[in-house]
UniProtKB/TrEMBL annotation:
Keywords: Membrane, Signal, Transmembrane, Transmembrane helix. PANTHER family: ARABINOGALACTAN PROTEIN 20. This is Arabinogalactan peptide 22. Residues 1-25 form the signal peptide. The keyword Transmembrane helix applies. The chain crosses the membrane at residues 46-61. InterPro entries: AGP16/20/22/41. It comes from Oryza nivara. The lineage of its organism: Eukaryota, Viridiplantae, Streptophyta, Embryophyta, Tracheophyta.
Amino acid sequence: MATLKVYLLLFTAFFLSGLMQLSMAQGAAAAPATRVIDAKAIDQAIAYLLMFAALFVTYFSH
């Protein structure tokens, strides 16, 4: 059971790092010289984090 949690944690870390790299690449392609805060991207990131938190709460409560 402990090894399953370790694998789940590693998978999650790699998955989130991939999402971060993807969002950074899109931001660099859109505006290489300026840093513009995209409200839609922030809202989407918050939604992903909330869904991820709900997944963990559901997983650990069972």
